[in-house]
TrEMBL record:
Residues 1-18 form the signal peptide. It comes from the Bacteria. This is Periplasmic nitrate reductase, electron transfer subunit. SUPFAM superfamilies: Multiheme cytochromes (SSF48695). Residues 26-47 are annotated as: Disordered. It comes from Luteimonas composti. InterPro entries: Multihaem_cyt_sf, NapB.
Amino acid sequence: MRALASNSLLALVLLALAACGRNEPPPQVAPPAPEVGARGNPAQDIDGLRRNIPITTEVTPLPMASVENFDLRRERAYPMQPPTIPHSIEGYQVDLNSNRCMLCHARNTAAQFQAIPVSVTHYMDRDDQFLAEVSPRRYFCVQCHVVQTDAKPLVGNQFRDIDTMLREERAAQAGQAHQ
């Protein structure tokens, strides 16, 4: 096997030397083509979430955002969005044996802690039957509800909820009626 490989190499060298003796021009080496990204256009292959830094460049991450702790209800950013958590939950235990969120947000203790009680839908099973305790499928709060930070949004959002749209429409109709 080794003899076969060395014979092949020798044959290649002899062919190269023979080509040089015939005064043939050296082969042209073309520069590599620009990389084409998933969208097909290398000039536009910039990820906006990377602060317009090319994907092939290493980025220093921004500092971690701080959790907002205002205890104020926020407007929703899209239809059917679960409410956000308006306070820090650092150190909260939410596991198979304990759910720290339910200390304040259970329906029977929410008034005592001036907290918003969890929705009745959290006490329903898959068959829409009411349970005495929070449904196991709704037990891990942070799978749907998230805390808010002071981070600048990565993508703009023009969402307006239906109540806002109806108020604006009524106001516009009232304005036209007075004219």
